[in-house]
C-alpha cells in the first residue's frame, strides 16, 4: 500500500529500522563480538554503549543486552544516510564473518536484503495499469 502511495522512502526506512532492531535482539550478548568486528570498538567504547542500560548491580541484564546492541547499530547505520541497501548489505557481510554467524539460521536479514534490492521494481509495478 505504501508503494502504491509512492512512499518508497518510508518503506525503506521501515525495513531499515526493522533490520536494526531485529538484528540487535538476535545478537543479544554477542553484540560485543559484532561491535569489535564492525566498528573496531575498544572495551571503553563498548562499555559506554552499555552504561545507560546497567542495572543497580552495575551490569547489563542478559535479557536487556539487545539495548546497547540497538544503540550501536542505530548510530552505525546513520553513516549510511539514505543508502539503506549498502547498510543492510554490509550488516549481512559482517554477520557472516562472526565465529558462529547468526545468518546461517536466521533468514530475516537475507529476506530484507532481497526486498530492498527489489524496491525499485516494486515501486514501478505499483503504478502499472492493468
From TrEMBL:
Domain SH3BP4 C-terminal helical: 13-122
Superkingdom of the organism of origin: Eukaryota
Coiled-coil parts of chain: none
Xref: Pfam families: SH3BP4_C
Protein name as catalogued: SH3BP4 C-terminal helical domain-containing protein
Species of origin: Xenotaenia resolanae
Amino acid at each position: 500500500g505504501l508503494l502504491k502511495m509512492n512512499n518508497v522512502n518510508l518503506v525503506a526506512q521501515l525495513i531499515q529500522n526493522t533490520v536494526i532492531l531485529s538484528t540487535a535482539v538476535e545478537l543479544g550478548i554477542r553484540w560485543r563480538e559484532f561491535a569489535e568486528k564492525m566498528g573496531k570498538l575498544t572495551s571503553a567504547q563498548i562499555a559506554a554503549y552499555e552504561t545507560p542500560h546497567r542495572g543497580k548491580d552495575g551490569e547489563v541484564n542478559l535479557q536487556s543486552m539487545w539495548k546497547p546492541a540497538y544503540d550501536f547499530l542505530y548510530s552505525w547505520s546513520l553513516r549510511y544516510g539514505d543508502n539503506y541497501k549498502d547498510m543492510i548489505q554490509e550488516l549481512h557481510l559482517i554477520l557472516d564473518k562472526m565465529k558462529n554467524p547468526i545468518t546461517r539460521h536466521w533468514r530475516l536479514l537475507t529476506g530484507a536484503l532481497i526486498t530492498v534490492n527489489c524496491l525499485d521494481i516494486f515501486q514501478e509495478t505499483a503504478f502499472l495499469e492493468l
